[in-house]
């Protein structure tokens, strides 16, 4: 999956839909995904057509955990 596809963004009917899109890794949050997620939220905040924001995850199940693949050594 291309790094640019980790977070998808769409506005319909005044709702900004932000989709975390890495189902193969159960949407574990990485540094790159975190940056893209922040950018999507800022994009929604700046768009006058967005009256609400929904954040969801692709696939099943979705995660709110971080990826340990780049965790600092203990």
Summarize the structure.
The chain has 74 residues and is an alpha+beta fold.
Question: How would you describe this structure to a colleague?
Answer:
By secondary structure, the chain is an alpha+beta fold. It has a single domain, classed as 2-Layer Sandwich (GMP Synthetase, Chain A, domain 3). Helices cover 22% and strands 24% of the residues. It has one helix and three strands. The protein has one helix spanning 31-46; strands at 7-12, 15-20, 52-57. A three-stranded mixed sheet has the order 1-2-3, with helices on one face. α1 (31-46) links the parallel β2 (15-20) and β3 (52-57). The protein starts with 6 loop residues before the first strand and ends in a 17-residue tail after the last strand. The mean pLDDT is 86.
List keywords for this structure.
74 residues, alpha+beta, GMP Synthetase, Chain A, domain 3, three-stranded mixed β-sheet, 1 helix
How are the secondary structure elements laid out?
Elements: E1 7-12, E2 15-20, H1 31-46, E3 52-57
Parallel strand pairs: 2-3
Antiparallel strand pairs: 1-2
């Amino acid at each position: 999956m291309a790094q640019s596809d980790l977070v998808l963004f769409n506005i319909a009917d005044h709702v900004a839909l932000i989709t975390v899109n890495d189902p193969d890794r159960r949407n574990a949050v990485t540094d790159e995904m975190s940056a893209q997620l922040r950018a999507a939220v800022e994009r929604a905040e700046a768009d006058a057509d967005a009256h609400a924001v929904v954040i969801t995850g692709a696939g099943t199940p979705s995660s709110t955990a971080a990826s340990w693949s780049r965790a600092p050594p203990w």
